[in-house]
Amino acid sequence: MRIVFMGTPDFAVPSLHVLLEQGYDVVGVVTQPDRPKGRKRTLTPPPVKEEAMKRGLPVLQPERMRSEEAVAALAELKPDLIVTAAYGQILPKAVLELPRFGCINVHGSLLPKYRGGAPIQRSIINGEKVTGVTIMYMAAGLDTGDMISRVEVPIADDDTSGTLFAKLSEAGAALLKETLPSIIGGTAKAEPQVEEDATYAPNLTRDDERIDWSKTALQIYNQIRGLSPMAGAFTYLAGEVFKVWAASPHSSVKPNAAAAAGEVLQADSEGIAVQTGSGVLLLKEIQPAGKRAMAASEWLKGARLEAGVVFGGEPQ
User: Fold this and answer.
1) Tens digit of pLDDT for each residue in 124-181?
2) Nearest to 33 by CA among 56, 3, 67, 2
3) Which backbone phi and psi does 126 adopt, to 5 degrees?
4) What is the rounded (10 degree) CA torsion for 178, 184, 190, 195?
5) 181 assigned to a ligand binding site
6) Where in the numbering of this chain does the Formyl transferase C-terminal domain appear (predicted)?
7) Is the per-residue pLDDT at 62 higher than 80?
């Protein structure tokens, strides 16, 4: 059984570990190209590549998996099965038809809900209480293939995308370990997805990161934790970007019916209490323009932020 593994971020690494620890013959790894990271824009390999190199596995990094060159290079590995986990590109028909056991995907949602590239972030942003992992056969559509197995994972009230990524990553690896023998043995029972129940989780945009203070405190809280620690939610203060990394609905400060959405009600050692469309949100960890992320209480020691200041507006 010759297996090619395709994945890119940290989410995919435990699934690669399972394949190797269970003794499967991983003949190659396909991942995204190295990308610039950080302020210095240092060219950095993706986590899956780093892990593959440690294990001495051949690595392919095509810019476009749809190119003839990429398909040909993959075909040379002669895979019997392709396993993907957060690879980041849609596989063309030529790749889907390569392995005799097909291509399977470890997807971070309970399909058919949250098809697409950002299921984990959007499940938190939308206030879901339960998510999970689905292992599915890959088809030509976006996460439309038949489902083989799945497992539920609760979303805690304080989960961020970072903590939920870690939970689902491990749950997906464990499910892969359970599921592979039935796929290889020909006993796996695949279930078609119900199209009427499908929802989508497209990749996040800059608009998804901008705080709309007219929403409820709970909705904004979910947005902030769904974007942390990757992109971060942001607003504007005096025309400059002001990021919010951590917050919580605030019960000890009463909403002010006369205050505008986004108006600061109180700023003290607890943080920055802000009026929303419904309820008060306490900003706990922030990042003003040109500065590092820090506790709001720390920033307030040297910053002048008084009640009545309004977050939002447009950049200068």
Assistant:
1) 999 999 999 999 999 988 999 999 999 999 999 999 999 999 999 999 999 999 999 9
2) 67
3) -85, 0
4) 90
5) no
6) 204-303
7) yes
Residues of the chain with pLDDT > 90: what percent?
Answer: 93
CA dist 187 and 172 (Å) reads: 20
**Over 90: is that where the pLDDT of 260 sits?**
yes
Nearest residue to 271 (alpha-carbon basis) of 281, 260, 279:
281
- What residues does 18 pair with on adjacent strands? none
Which residues lie across from 80 on neighbouring strands? none
Q: How far apart are alpha carbons 289 and 272 in whole angstroms?
A: 17
Q: Band of the pLDDT at 251, cuts 50, 70, 90?
A: confident
Determine the average pLDDT of the residues in 182-193.
Answer: 94
Q: Which pair of tokens denotes residue 87?
A: 């690879």
255: annotated binding-site residue?
no
Domains within the chain, CATH numbers bracketed = 2-197 (3.40.50.170), 206-300 (3.10.25.10)
Residue 281 counted as an annotated binding residue: no
- 111 marked as part of a ligand binding site: yes
Measured between alpha carbons, how far is 274 from 152 in angstroms, rounded to an integer? Answer: 35
* Alpha helical stretches, state H, the chain: 13-21, 47-54, 68-75, 93-96, 119-125, 161-185, 206-209, 217-226, 296-300
Q: Which tokens in the block code for residue 218?
A: 């709970």
Cα–Cα distance measured from residue 280 to residue 158, given in angstroms and rounded to the nearest whole number: 17
pLDDT in tens, 190-239: 999 999 999 999 999 999 999 999 999 999 999 999 999 999 999 999 99
Alpha carbon distances (Å) from 138 to 65, 95, 103: 15, 10, 6
Range of lowest pLDDT (193-202, 251-260, 274-283): 251-260
Asked if residues 226 and 122 have their Cβ atoms less than 8 Å apart, the reply is yes
**Range 103-111 average pLDDT:** 98
Q: Report how far apart, in Å, the C-alpha atoms of 106 and of each of 6, 27, 189, 306 are.
A: 10, 19, 16, 49
